[in-house]
Amino acid sequence: MLKYQFDWSVVTSGKYFEWLLSGLYTTIQLSLVAIVLSFLLGLIIAMMRMSNVKPVRWFAHGYLEFFRNTPLLVQIFFWYFGSYKILPTVINDWLNRTNFEFGAAVIALTIYTSAFIAEDIRSGVRSIPKEQLEAARSSGFSYVRSMQYIILPQAVRITIPPLINQFLNLTKNSSLAMTIGVMELTYQARQVESYTFKGFEAFTAATLVYVVLSIIITLMVTYYDKVVLSPMKAR
Amino acid sequence: MITFKGVHKWFKDLHVLNDINLHVNQGEVLVVCGPSGSGKSTLIRTINKLEPINQGTLIVDGMDLSDSKVDINKLRAEIGFVFQQFNLYPHLSVMRNIILAPIKIRGMGKNEAESQAMALLERVGLVEKRNAYPTQLSGGQQQRVAIARALAMKPRIMLFDEPTSALDPEMIGEVLLVMKDLAQSGMTMIVVTHEMGFASEVSDRVVFMDDGQILEEAAPDEFFKNPKHERAQQFLKEVLSPMH
Amino acid sequence: MKRFVVMFVAFVFVAGLCGTLLAQDRLDTIKKRGALIAGVKDSTPGFGFVDEKTREIVGYDVDFVRAIANKLGVKLQLKPVTSASRMPQLVEGNIDIIAATMTKTAERAKQIDFSYTYFFTGQKFIVKKGTVKSLADLDGKRIGTAKGSTSEQNAAKALPKATILSFDDYPQALLALQQGKVFAVTTDESILANLLGKAPNKEQYEIPDIQISDEPYGLGIKKGEKGLVDFVNKTLLEMEKSGEAKKIFDKWFGPKSPTPLQRGSFKITAGK
Ligand SMILES: Nc1ncnc2c1ncn2[C@@H]1O[C@H](COP(=O)(O)OP(=O)(O)O)[C@@H](O)[C@H]1O
Ligand SMILES: [Mg+2]
Fold first, then answer.
1. Distance in Å, alpha carbon of C223 to nearest chain A alpha carbon
2. Which of A83, B218, C150, C200 could serve as B223's disulfide partner, Cβ 3.0–4.6 Å?
3. How far is CA B238 from CA A94, A200, B204, B234, C87, in A?
4. Is it true that domain C122-214 has CATH number 3.40.190.10?
5. Could you give the CA distance from residue C97 to residue C113 in angstroms, rounded to a whole number?
6. Of A3, A100, A206, which is closest to C181 when you measure between CB atoms?
7. What CA–CA distance (Å, rounded) separates A117 from A39?
8. pLDDT digits (tens, 9 = 90+) for A144-188
9. SS3 at position B235
10. Domain tally for chain A?
């Protein structure tokens, strides 16, 4: 029976270490961009979902149902391969000259995650007493401004724990980008594995990095909660 | 300043405002009283269109509220509203509760808004609480901040919906004091309240409502000494009795 | 990540077993079980792919392991693997043998044992007709291939300035080529020929005569299983002698097949 020889040096220095490092860099880039965009898009979709203009509300509803219930992998493939059939040649040519693997992954992750975030924010908004909206409206704030200054800051504050969850999911989900050749962390770990057969070390290293990333994201959002959003004691 | 002409409102089958005719002059202080569920809140909430009316005409500060060309946000900026439950923004400090609307709606500079807020906090006696958060304040303090917040918009009309009903008895006085001060400054005010002391001392006119109708409308002396309507008599007996 | 967990659990499990159940001969295990479990590809035309009519995995690789199973007098059980998953699956003991277009390399031979070469090909490229005359035309371009294959490593070596984009499998790499997302797709000629054979508007593409490596395919067996390796090698030689090996080649790559290839002078022989 084969005895597995541990060799941690493959992942701690040299060429393979650099691969993992560049994978980490890509994972961070991908996740950060998608986190920011999916949060903003999630806010917009949540507001559309609560709009009193029916077509807008229906559109948001359809959006949520569709993107939450379609597997992310399918969505990644759709944006990367499927978009080709829809877009005009000029745009396809241009996209092919850019790093469209990354772009398609960002779009897919952003849209997929925004659907979940929108639902979280919506339930956060619903938990804000309606008198808050009345107070804002009676000061002369429009519906949108009331949301912006009074309701959403409170809703987001309440939504922080589920938001952290969505951001962590997004970071983990970003590994699916490797299916279209984005050289992120899991991709590089696989590369190291297929070059060195040191899969255990490579994936252990990758796992550790994901854990550390998770902790960092949790800390960052907690910090944002404490410092950027003003303290707001329990009602 | 405010004119109701044959105003009706229904919540589904419930006829909450039934043929309301009322005129409030500039600088007048009007007290609205009546039993619970009689439509007092609904009445003052129609004035800034928190509740739209179904029938009749309502003219506020020269603007017809059923006219779709009226910019409702602009009108609301001119009308201060003080709620029974204060409704301060819990995520903002006292200072930011007060300066938010002047800055975002009036386009006031931050410094100007803050010095105005300081003046208002002085007026309601809460300068030292400017950096506190609403939940750190007592009910009476919160309500005074809420009044300061409304005044920060330099409104032409102030509406109060039972501003002291949610307060412990020992805090009612401090809020009424602020309101008296405001009344003496010449503000047009409509106050829904059961504080009959306030009514007789400060108001120019008292309106008694029941079942969505205005049953009596009189000067305070007249109303308290000699209420015409039977239900008003009944009501006064209840609110003025020491048991209450 | 899931695979890592699987690996981890399997590793702990295997490590635990090591102490108690010291290596039992795999050949015995297979006979006792009454089935040979072979890891094969399921989307590599010609070698291991799903037959549209029967919904079963068929191909050159499958026929070889079937012959071995028949010789052993046991049933054949197929397990789909990818280029990246086949070695871990073998090492973990989930499969007895790999028959999945696997190139014999010195690096891999440190981890597992290989049978005699049962198929021989070389690594080439599919490109748009007329775009490539020599290897230099490919350098600096985006080249698609599949993850975990030797193709990826060979391409990186031969084209140091190129960007190698590894997809999950070859059909996606080909789609990327057709959509202009990569300039070429590279892997073993045998796989390329089959891929191209199935492609719509295949007349726009070609496989230029540029070879960047020799690719001898071997069947993979876990290290230290001498009994099984010997049995497989013996069977392979017999198949060559009886003409069965050539028959299988002709069945999948003969002139009448969708993707004819030249067997040329190749014969299964003892040795590397
Ligand atoms: N949003 C609403 N929907 C349905 N009924 C309501 C609503 N608001 C108030 N009502 C009903 O209308 C009547 C008058 O309410 P309100 O104006 O709050 O009375 P008051 O302030 O005099 O107690 C009550 O019967 C109340 O239950
Ligand atoms: Mg009321």
1. 7
2. B218
3. 80, 82, 22, 6, 89
4. yes
5. 10
6. A100
7. 7
8. 899 999 999 899 888 888 888 899 999 999 999 998 889 899 988
9. helix
10. 1
